[in-house]
Amino acid sequence: MSFEERPLHSLLEDAATGTWGAPADSATDGFPVLRSTNIHKGTLVLDDVALRAVSDEAAVRFALRDGDILVTTSSGSSELIGKNCLFHQPPDDRTYLFSNFTLRLRPDQSQIVPAYLYYYLNSGRAKDELKGIHNTTSGLRNLNTTLYLDQPVPLAPLPQQRHIVELLDRADDLRRKRAETDRLASHIVQALFRKMFGDPITNPMKWPAGSIGDVTLRTQYGTSKPANREGKGVLVIRMNNITADGYLDLSELKHVELEEEEVGKYLLHEGDLLFNRTNSIDLVGKTGLWDSSVEAVAASYIVRVELDRTKAVPAYVWAWMNMPSTRKAMMAQARRAVGMANLNAEELRALPLLLPDLVSQEEFSAYLGRLLVARSRARQAQAVVGTLFEVIVRRAFSGSLAAGTRVPETEH
């Protein structure tokens, strides 16, 4: 059985882009405004909410309600366009607004269950629709909202929508529990770093202070040759292969055709740092650590950093680069253009770095290695759960889910 299809805009009470305003003087004077950075893997994250001064009229107009869906419309990265989350009022009861780089969808609940629409917008079919409806302006990717709102949505009857949401909620809960391992891994790394080396800002252990340049043998910009999806040439690591917290994600790979001498010139080596020099302001400076034996090169938005291992251990410098205090310093220093931010190799070299003794750095590296092995195993389990979820989503919106379908139990 297939469902009737309706254009997205016909299933909404309202669709609107948001507001921004001037910075608020204090927490009591401003309204929290949600941005793209507050949407992480389909979940609303309130770790860093902007407080902006807007009029009372604008606050009423741009206030979010339970069941609204928030969609990213502009970003420096095409992969982030269209990412979205379902809004539920946080327990603080504050009035939350949404930014001018996001689109609020308010479902007409007499026709469609908000969670049903949210799950559809994150389905493989909806993601395929996204690929052709954004463009680039001054380096910023923008969603064509007219085409986005015209996209067809398979509309099941309301009782069946609720059944589908119940199934997907269960499957998504399993998926989120597995995905939580990534977030926990980042917190564990940061906690271990602070325990061994102290706070990077106050330096209570009085480690010698230097800069990234002090421990760097060489920096090199990656190749600007165009990449391909056909597997032709050598693997190329792009900025989207580095997660926001500095891990490598090799699930979506491209290749680049280079002459033999170019491969030798750009070839990555174990222990190289991969510094993302150009991205949106919240992602610029994210840094990966190359630890694979696979032959690969870096793309042009990546700076390869070869460290002097008589002075610093790669795992230590990698952790330093991804500490919140370092990331904030990079965001403050980055040069901004329309929707983009930049840090060049010289600015990277000038970043401050504390220099503990090599024995302590090696000890940290050994702990980190064990943590990454555990993370790798957890991610393998996560992939299995993710595949299960995608199968259920595909069957749900094609109308092929049986009425009695249940989500199987798995170990958490």
Summarize the model shown.
The chain has ten helices and 27 strands. It is of the alpha+beta class and 412 residues long.
CATH fold name of the largest domain:
Adenine-n6-DNA-methyltransferase TaqI, Chain A, domain 2
What is the top-level CATH class of the largest domain?
Answer: Alpha Beta
CATH level-four homologous superfamily name of the largest domain: DNA methylase specificity domains
Tally of separate domains = 3
Mean pLDDT over the residues: 89
Proportion of strand residues? 15-25%
Radius of gyration: 23 Å
Architecture overview:
The structure is a single chain. The longest helix has 41 residues, at 358-398. Strand 13 (134-137) and strand 14 (140-143) form a beta hairpin. The strands form nine sheets. Strands 2-12-8-10 form a four-stranded antiparallel beta sheet, covered by helices on one side. The chain has 412 residues and is α+β, with helices and mostly antiparallel strands. Helix 5 packs antiparallel against helix 10 (358-398). The chain folds into three domains: 4-154, Adenine-n6-DNA-methyltransferase TaqI, Chain A, domain 2, CATH 3.90.220.20; 156-186 and 361-412; 208-355, Adenine-n6-DNA-methyltransferase TaqI, Chain A, domain 2 (Alpha-Beta Complex), CATH 3.90.220. The protein has helices spanning 56-61, 114-121, 124-130, 145-150, 158-197, 260-266, 314-321, 324-333, 345-349, 358-398, and strands at residues 4-7, 12-17, 22-23, 31-34, 39-40, 43-44, 50-53, 69-72, 74-75, 84-86, 97-98, 102-107, 134-137, 140-143, 152-155, 209-211, 216-221, 234-237, 254-256, 273-276, 278-279, 287-289, 296-298, 302-307, 335-337, 340-342, 352-354.
